[in-house]
Write a structure and sequence with these properties.
Blueprint (H helix, E strand, L loop, with lengths): L15 E5 L5 H8 L7 E5 L2 H9 L5 E8 L3 E2 L1 H8 L5 E9 L2 E5 L10 E4 L1 H6 L1 H7 L4 E4 L3 H9 L8 E4 L1 H6 L3 E7 L6 E8 L11 E8 L7 H10 L5 E8 L7 E8 L5 H13 L2 E9 L14 H17 L5
Helix pairs in contact: 8-9
The protein binds prephenic acid.
């Protein structure tokens, strides 16, 4: 692979974005909608780990990876890969509605299906549907939804009789669609993030999110409460919080957190400083515009203006010993 920023001809610089492939995954749809990827060379890879490794190693400029689903919650492989290893920055988020079809080789009927293959997150979102409509079938994990379609369509014996994937992936693989709108919860949405090597965050927009991973002080009662208080006392709403095992021993966890606001917002900056004081480790993963455009509504006394006014009140106290009001 050529170095990032250099085209194979060595002439015009080009950006390279890697994503969980092959063509036809929901991640590919996210790449098409992600800010900063227009005109970039798109390179599909086999896993989230491979995508993030390509960015860490300088083989790609950006990776687009799934991080959260409205039905299944956090994508643990992404949370773990972002939370450890060489640091990375989240630059943007993208929301993609997720709708699955049941794809089969031509001639297969519902009764023939004993094994259903797909990405584990897709299988989890369709668990109830499969149990109800294909009670005889077991599920088989695949690298992605589109990979499941391609494997099923390939030559010879396939490891499953049906694949759950996006309809364009089924059509591209030459499969038949036996059922549409396969889901336990209609209207499911997956959230993807655009990731780069560490860089200063984009400027605040007034509708931003910040992502951090924080470790708790070991074996201390109230440590989690202390972490949460850093956000609560500053009126900052959390949009996601998940515990992930550190992996070294039972009972050791880090917390992956998304909160409303930007690190440059005084109240968010102060909350992160609070985390730095009370947590043994804090990994800042980035501040970036919200895909839904919603702006936070801070409770009374916790707006950025309130924090700025309080800071200048303290400065005056330090300077003059009193504040004329
Ligand atoms: O397999 C795909 O098509 C993917 O893009 C991965 C993925 C995921 O990791 O959650 C993305 C969206 C769907 O929720 C199911 C699978």
């Amino acid at each position: 692979m050529a170095a990032p920023g250099i085209s194979p001809s060595g002439s015009a610089p080009s950006r390279r974005v890697v994503y969980l492939g092959p063509a036809g995954t929901f991640t590919e749809t996210a790449v098409g909608r992600a800010p900063g990827t227009a005109g970039a060379e798109r390179v599909p890879v086999a896993s989230v780990d491979a995508a993030l490794a390509a960015v860490r190693d300088g083989e790609a400029d950006l990776a687009v990876v799934p991080i959260e689903n409205s039905v299944e919650g956090g994508v643990t492989s992404t949370l773990d890969a972002l939370g450890a290893g060489r640091p990375l920055s989240i630059r943007a988020e993208v929301l993609v509605p997720v709708a699955f079809v049941l794809a089969v080789r031509p001639g297969t009927t519902m009764r023939d299906i004993l094994r259903v293959g797909s990405h584990p997150h897709a299988l989890a979102q369709c668990r109830g549907w499969v149990a109800q409509n294909l009670p005889q079938a077991v599920t088989v994990p695949a690298l992605s939804t589109a990979a499941a379609a391609q494997v099923l369509a390939g030559e010879g014996e396939a490891p499953y009789d049906a694949a759950l994937c996006a309809e364009p992936a089924a059509v591209a693989a030459g499969l038949d669609v036996l059922a549409r709108d396969v889901a336990d919860n209609a209207g499911a949405v997956t959230r993807f993030v655009v990731v780069s090597r560490p860089a200063a965050p984009p400027a605040p927009t007034g509708s931003d999110k910040t992502t951090v991973v924080a470790a708790l002080a070991e074996d201390r009662s109230g440590a989690l409460l202390e972490l949460l208080e850093q956000f609560a006392t500053r009126g900052i709403n959390l949009t996601r919080i998940e515990s992930r095992p550190v992996g070294t021993a039972l009972g050791r966890y880090t917390f992956s957190i998304d909160c409303e606001g930007h690190v440059a917002d005084p109240r968010v900056g102060e909350a992160l400083m609070g985390l730095h004081r009370v947590c043994p480790q804090v990994r800042y993963l980035g501040s970036y515009p919200r895909a839904d455009g919603l702006a936070p509504v801070p409770p009374p006394g916790t707006s950025d203006d309130d924090f700025t006014a309080a800071r200048s009140w303290l400065s005056q106290l330090l300077e003059c010993g009193e504040v004329s009001s």
